[in-house]
Specification:
113 residues, alpha+beta, six-stranded antiparallel sheet, 3 helices, 35% helix, elongated
Amino acid sequence: MFKKINDLFGSMRMVLPEQKTAILEHKSISGLVERPEVDEDELGEMCFRIYDSTQYDYAIDVKWFKVSKGNLGTIEAAWGVVKEIDNNRKRFKLVCDWEVHWINIEDLVSVTK
């Protein structure tokens, strides 16, 4: 009988609210990265490929930074054809078979053919 009571209390863990908050904060930050640096030459090449995709209707692979928390975020990726460029808002519309993404030029990480 005492063994069952000891097992019951031995398996219980006590977590303070501050600890729970810290654990949840750590889980939300893990896996996030800082915004990658892209120089102007790379950005120029990426914009050229984006423009070419609209002109010649070929698919490109795009990776961009998506902010999640502060200056941290994730790298998103999609494959598709650029159907529209919005110069006023500095973004473009990437269309694939099952989804559409409006991607800001300033968030670009890479564009490959």
